[in-house]
Amino acid sequence: MIEGLARPLAAVWNAVASALGAFYRVLGAPGKLLQDFLNGTWLGHSLHAVVVDVVIGGATAALLLDVLRVVFGVEGLEDAAIWVLGLAWLAGVAAIFSGLTDFKDTASGNERNVAGLHGLINLFGNTAFAISVMQRMNGNHDLAFWVLLVGYGIISVGSYIGGHVVFKYGYMVNHNAFSRGKRAKEFTAILPAAELPDETPTKATYGATALVLVRRGDVVHALKDSCSHAGGPLSQGELDGDMISCPWHGSVFRLSDGAVKHGPAGTRQVTYRARISGDQVEVQGPHD
Ligand code: FES
């Protein structure tokens, strides 16, 4: 049902995602840093989820203060409600910017459509919060209460749809969380060393797990091939010094330990110990 509601505006969601991509590309290196900050790469997971907690918590607290005042006649709560709802609105602005940055790298189709609908509805909800704050500052506390009530209802619907896109589509969660793949304490031969060229990301299989191998002389790095952001094939990515980038949305991982250098990925890429033994490439792990 949610997908059906979101689909008619698919062209809008695609245009917004394209415009955001172009915006960040024009900004160049500073844009990459801004994107990393707003994605939450530095935090280890989505920044959007953190600021949304403040939005919902602040709006709930403001609503409680209003209910205490309107229903139970508690006096002297007006100023507190302004400050708390003002904080919730400010966090809502941060949620819009962080959410748009995540949205840029959604998969087109249902995931992008539902994420777009989530964002649009919450934009209306946050606008209602702003109107409620302004009414309070003009002394219209009773009208502000009803506006907040409407805004809270809108945000609740938007949050439900946000949960739908995360829990149904795995949006902005670690793509490798449920696919740990083969684990082995002993080194296992996976490829003749002669078939692994230097300085070339090469796909190989370790049990049923696809790996990307990068050879530098006698040193071999091995990472899970499927990008932690959304499953892009790192074996089709590019090397840059000690880093490898994902071809889908440009996340950059350190070869030696899978650490995230640039997002949108927020989770370390799974890595393995690898070596050349005799005429074979051998792999053991993964590292935990
Ligand atoms: S799949 Fe998105 S950066 Fe790799």
How would you describe this structure in keywords?
single chain; 288 residues; alpha+beta; Rieske Iron-sulfur Protein; 6-stranded antiparallel sheet; 6 helices; 49% helix; elongated; binds FE2/S2 (inorganic) cluster
User: How many strand segments?
Assistant: 10
Would you identify the CATH architecture of the largest domain?
A: Up-down Bundle
Average residue-wise pLDDT: 94
Bound molecules: FE2/S2 (inorganic) cluster
Q: In what order do the strands lie side by side in the largest sheet?
A: 1-10-9-4-3-2
Instruction: Provide the succession of SSEs.
Output: HHHHHHEEEEEEEEEE
Which structural category fits the helices and strands? alpha+beta
What does this structure look like?
This protein is an alpha+beta fold and 288 residues long. The chain folds into two domains: 168 residues, Four Helix Bundle (Hemerythrin (Met), subunit A) (Up-down Bundle), CATH 1.20.120; 102 residues, Rieske [2Fe-2S] iron-sulphur domain (Rieske Iron-sulfur Protein, 3-layer Sandwich). It is 49% helix and 18% strand. The chain has six helices and ten strands. A six-stranded antiparallel β-sheet has the order 1-10-9-4-3-2, with no helix packed on it. A hairpin with a 6-residue loop joins strand 6 and strand 7. 41% of the residues are buried. The mean pLDDT is 94. The site of FE2/S2 (inorganic) cluster has 13 residues, from loops.
